């Protein structure tokens, strides 16, 4: 137990002082945030982004709500869901309910066409699915012809709120959706022309992600689902949860009449490993997953968010290729004689031999675990407790792959993280809410770089490409290492084509070597040891009576920088974790007079953030500070550190 505690403490200290600490923190004071209240007392089912980045649809339990962030004062537009099965014929103003239709919206899928959505709702007994055209004055929820098979097969199924799903939109559409819990129907369900369900088992499973991988040959297309499974018999050294990935073929029709009829014959399951085997660090509770699709299906990556029993989080990355390697080559766990079992998708699963189907029915778990890409460890692990993950993959100026991750914190904050082949870097922490809350969803409008974050009662729009917030110099722009921002010769801009960036190292020396940047600059003194200094504040003159107590304040921007107060030959360091670097003049005297300079230093780049010229007032003109003054100064200190 002592060794475990020490390992936990070392990991906490390392995470708190490493580059995995967010470089900057942004509240509404530092970056633009727009907040809109959500109606009702229930979290939105889903946030649906439109082509216009300022128009957002929030699906509530009973209706859709349209918000316009371009004009936040404008009243939200409430769109009632008129289920066709629940209303009669005739003009909308004459529609009357034929029965009690208390349906809660459980699935919202935005189609490729503008203003078109696919919806499902359940009343606890049955489910209805339909299409809506939001551009109509009074949208009706009408089942289209290609949705007819889904509508008919899903009627008696109850969709649980928050379950992952995937819609195959084709001539004959299919809906894949999971069912979590410990009931007999737990697993992946397929609705459409061919209804396929999971086999019955007594395991408790909770699904966090479901991803469709379509291939040129439709017969080989697959669906991957990620879930955590509760350990029924826990030993002292075992985890409460085990993480899994499972796979089914979209062409699977189920078995013949006697064995696995209407149940998956292609399903295989494999454990996921996230941690460091050498140090014994292990993350076993799977929290969330996000996919970044690639041109080659096998290169598609899954970013999985984990947590351990001490509340620490980690992100591990897996590829379809690595997952398929396990499903293709691993032996089956606790099963002999299954070498003849098919590993690939088959055209007609009803023709699989019954002895093979008995093997499939008995066991589908692989012996080998799926490990992260290149057998690496977590790309991110620290003491924060993350609750959601959203991933945006793109290319930087040198055509090398990088990814931006948005991770929600359990206090309502958002970490923006840059990840490339060599390392992970926490760019910033956004605090979209002015109070502690639980984040329900994260969505990014990719082209505009607008991030939408929702709690149970608020929807917030953030501009995560507000590059001016990093500063007005090339060095500060490059040090930010933000894929969405680059230096164009005059300012830090979201138009990154042809601009200066160094996402891998944040090497600001490229600013000096660039011919674009022949700008006048003040060379720093050798003692500061930097390429340039920039005084952000003019020198302030302060005259203090003898024995006065006084605080000098210096703003903290980058938490990766070192902050130092310089006075004569003395240097006093500050913690970069706080929002202010404070220096207390405990008792003003001749020795305390002179120039005080607050300097930040980050990767060799220094700048002067504040300067004070303290002068001693004559004794005749002043008197020692009163206890009231001291209490006021303490209040300033406490407010700065809070």
TrEMBL record:
Residues 526-615 form the Ig-like domain. SUPFAM superfamilies: Immunoglobulin (SSF48726), Plexin repeat (SSF103575), Sema domain (SSF101912). GO terms for molecular function: chemorepellent activity; semaphorin receptor binding. GO terms for biological process: axon guidance; negative regulation of transcription by RNA polymerase II; neural crest cell migration; ossification involved in bone maturation; positive regulation of cell migration; semaphorin-plexin signaling pathway. Keywords: Disulfide bond, Glycoprotein, Membrane, Signal. Pfam families: PSI (PF01437), Sema (PF01403). The keyword Glycoprotein applies. Its main location: membrane. It is found in: Membrane. GO terms for cellular component: extracellular space; plasma membrane. Residues 1-16 form the signal peptide. It comes from the Eukaryota. Residues 23-464 form the Sema domain. Belongs to the semaphorin family. This is Semaphorin-7A-like. It comes from Zoarces viviparus (Viviparous eelpout).
């Amino acid at each position: 137990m002592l060794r475990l505690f020490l390992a936990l403490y070392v990991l906490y200290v390392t995470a708190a002082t490493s580059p995995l600490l967010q470089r900057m923190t942004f509240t509404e004071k530092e970056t633009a945030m727009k907040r809109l209240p959500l109606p009702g007392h229930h979290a939105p089912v889903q946030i649906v982004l439109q082509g216009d980045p300022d128009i957002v649809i929030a699906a509530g339990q009973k209706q859709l709500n349209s918000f316009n962030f371009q004009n936040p004062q404008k009243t939200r537009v409430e769109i009632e869901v008129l289920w066709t099965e629940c209303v009669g014929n005739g003009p909308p103003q004459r529609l009357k309910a034929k029965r009690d239709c208390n349906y809660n919206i459980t699935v919202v899928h935005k189609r490729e066409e503008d203003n078109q959505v696919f919806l499902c709702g359940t009343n606890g007994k049955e489910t209805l699915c339909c299409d809506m055209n939001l551009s109509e004055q009074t949208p009706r929820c009408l089942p289209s012809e290609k949705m007819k098979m889904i509508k008919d097969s899903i009627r008696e199924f109850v969709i649980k709120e928050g379950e992952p799903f995937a819609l195959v939109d084709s001539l004959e559409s299919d809906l894949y959706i999971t069912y979590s819990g410990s009931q007999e129907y737990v697993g992946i369900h397929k609705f459409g022309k061919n209804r396929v369900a999971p086999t019955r088992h007594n395991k408790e499973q909770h699904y966090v992600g479901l991803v469709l991988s379509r291939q040129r040959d439709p017969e080989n297309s697959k669906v991957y689902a990620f879930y955590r499974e509760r350990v029924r018999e826990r030993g002292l050294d075992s985890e409460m949860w085990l993480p899994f990935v499972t796979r089914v073929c979209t062409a699977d029709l189920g078995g013949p009449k006697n064995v696995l009829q209407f149940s998956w014959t292609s399903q295989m399951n494999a454990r996921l490993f996230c941690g460091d085997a050498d140090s014994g660090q292990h993350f076993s509770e799977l929290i969330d997953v996000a996919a970044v699709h690639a041109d080659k299906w096998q290169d598609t990556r899954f970013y999985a968010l984990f947590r351990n029993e001490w509340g620490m989080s980690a992100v591990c990355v897996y590829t379809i290729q690595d997952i398929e390697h396990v499903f293709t080559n691993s032996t089956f766990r606790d099963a002999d004689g299954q070498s003849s079992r098919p590993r690939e998708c088959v055209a007609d699963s009803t023709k699989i031999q019954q002895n093979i189907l008995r093997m499939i029915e008995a066991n589908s778990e692989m012996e080998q675990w799926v490990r992260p890409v290149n057998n690496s460890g977590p790309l991110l692990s620290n003491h924060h407790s993350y609750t959601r993950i959203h991933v945006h993959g793109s290319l930087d100026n040198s055509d090398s792959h990088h990814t931006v991750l948005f991770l929600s914190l359990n206090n309502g904050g958002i970490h923006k993280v840059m990840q490339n082949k060599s390392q992970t870097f926490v760019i910033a922490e956004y605090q979209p809410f002015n109070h502690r809350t639980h984040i329900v969803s994260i969505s990014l409008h990719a082209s505009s770089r607008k991030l939408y974050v929702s709690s149970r009662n608020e929807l917030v729009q953030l501009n995560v490409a507000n590059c001016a917030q990093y500063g007005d110099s090339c060095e500060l722009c490059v040090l930010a290492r933000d894929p969405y921002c680059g230096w164009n010769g005059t300012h830090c801009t979201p138009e990154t084509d042809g601009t200066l960036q160094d996402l891998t190292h944040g090497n600001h020396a490229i600013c000096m070597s660039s011919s674009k940047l022949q700008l006048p600059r003040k060379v720093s003194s050798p003692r500061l040891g930097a390429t340039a200094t920039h005084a952000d504040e003019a020198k302030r003159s302060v005259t203090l009576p003898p024995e006065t107590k006084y605080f000098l304040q210096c703003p903290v921007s980058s938490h990766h920088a070192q902050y130092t107060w310089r006075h004569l030959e003395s240097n006093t360091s500050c913690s970069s974790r706080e929002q202010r670097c404070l220096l207390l003049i405990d008792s003003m005297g001749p020795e305390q007079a002179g120039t005080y300079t607050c300097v930040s230093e980050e990767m060799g780049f220094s700048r002067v953030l504040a300067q004070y010229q303290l002068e001693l007032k004559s004794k005749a003109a002043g008197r020692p500070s009163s206890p009231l003054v001291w209490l006021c100064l303490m209040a300033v200190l406490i407010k700065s550190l809070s």
